[in-house]
């Protein structure tokens, strides 16, 4: 379903993937502990990225290759380690927005590799993802979530905002008439694009 070139179904599926963030954060924090050093940041980012990447891959109805999952996990791990280190593992709203920008940039770069043939101006994806993740942390912090616990990813409120905005970016960059041409391959060796 498209409204003036905007793929509403893809946007809705993508946005609903915000539900992957709370279990991703809980799993990562339970296994790795608080994000307070580079090792826990890398492990937490990888674990959270696996869950979030799987949620997003499912939301895109497997129209991106399964490599989306490890690309998200790797990018999120590196981005979180760099971002958390950059702010000294502090949890003020500005610190978390900066950490979120670095984390989103890392995840976005990993995903860009798979999106580059699927959407026009895919180079904008990492930048847009960075902005969405920065805003996600700002929203989560603003509503009173205990961010001092040093979670690896923001909560449901921030995830809803970040996924709705990045879903808009996804559908706008994809544009009307783009139906195939993903890098890599999906299940069975073929890339599928389902409306």
Give short descriptive properties of this protein.
globular, disordered C terminus, 195 residues, 2% strand, mainly alpha, two-stranded antiparallel ribbon, 2 strands, single chain
Listing every helix as H and every strand as E from the N terminus to the C terminus, the arrangement reads EEHHHHHHH
Radius of gyration from CA coordinates: 16 Å
Helix content: 55-70%
**What is the total tally of β strands?**
2
Gap between N and C termini: 8 Å
Q: Compute the average pLDDT.
A: 89
Tell me the count of domains.
Answer: 1
- For this structure, the quaternary state is single chain
Report the uncertain regions. Answer: 179-195
- The main sheet orders its strands as 1-2
Largest sheet: 2 strands, antiparallel
Structural class, judged by helices and strands? mainly alpha
Query: Total helix count?
Result: 7
Work out the strand percent: under 5%
Overall outline: globular
């Amino acid at each position: 379903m498209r409204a003036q070139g905007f793929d509403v179904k893809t946007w809705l599926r993508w946005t609903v993937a915000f539900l992957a963030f709370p279990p991703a954060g809980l799993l990562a924090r339970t296994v790795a502990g608080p994000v307070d050093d580079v090792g826990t940041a890398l492990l937490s980012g990888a674990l959270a990225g696996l869950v979030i990447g799987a949620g997003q891959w499912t939301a895109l109805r497997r129209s991106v290759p399964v490599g989306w999952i490890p690309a998200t996990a790797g990018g999120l791990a590196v981005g979180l380690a760099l971002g958390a280190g950059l702010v000294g593992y502090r949890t003020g709203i500005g610190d978390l927005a900066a950490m979120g920008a670095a984390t989103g940039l890392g995840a976005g770069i990993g995903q860009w590799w798979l999106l580059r043939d699927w959407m026009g101006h895919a180079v904008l994806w990492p930048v847009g993802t960075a902005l969405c993740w920065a805003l996600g942390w700002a929203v989560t912090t603003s509503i009173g979530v205990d961010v001092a616990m040093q979670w690896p990813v923001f909560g449901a409120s921030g995830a809803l905002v970040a996924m709705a905005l990045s879903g808009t970016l996804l559908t706008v960059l994809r544009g009307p008439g783009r139906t195939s041409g993903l890098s890599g391959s999906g299940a069975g060796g073929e890339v599928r694009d389902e409306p």
